[in-house]
Amino acid sequence: MFAAVRAAQLNVEVAMVEADALGGTCLNRGCISSKVMRAEGALMTDCRRFSKFGVRLPGSPEIDMPRLNARRQ
Fold this sequence. Notes:
- This protein has 4 helices and no strands.
- It is mostly helical.
- The radius of gyration is 21 Å and the shape is elongated.
């Protein structure tokens, strides 16, 4: 990646080829996916605290893992 950026700075035409899904690890499996998981965890924590603020939910909050995984992807 560094070599491609440096070559582009020197006005050399650059083409990069991604061996995996477009976007790389961070976008597809790393950073972004972990942010979704972190947000879901924070939301669950908030839901468990609702009763302290006078909010009642019908039943206990649960994580629907298939839907969560679909959102991550």
